[in-house]
Inverse folding.
């Protein structure tokens, strides 16, 4: 069996900008194995960090977007702006 370190694995993501400070090539992806597997990104310039959304958050957001599209289709306001003559 291979030795596996308990230290977090850090990997720089090339060409990625920080969503907070807009620094280029400053984002690190961190993978934690123990005690609970986790993954997040972190900016080395400003310290901003974000966790990967779980499947429940993603499906809730997709459901909300689908509902907005259905409502816009029903009301006839599908993003088209009409001006009066």
């Amino acid at each position: 069996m291979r030795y596996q370190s308990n230290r977090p694995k850090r990997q720089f993501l090339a060409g990625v900008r920080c969503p907070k400070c807009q620094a280029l090539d400053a984002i690190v992806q961190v993978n934690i194995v123990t005690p609970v597997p986790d993954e997040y990104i972190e900016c080395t310039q400003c310290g901003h960090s974000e966790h990967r959304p779980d499947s429940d958050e993603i499906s809730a957001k997709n459901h909300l977007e689908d509902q907005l599209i259905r409502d816009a289709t029903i009301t006839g306001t599908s993003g088209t702006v009409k001006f009066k003559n």
Observations:
- The two ends are 76 Å apart (CA to CA).
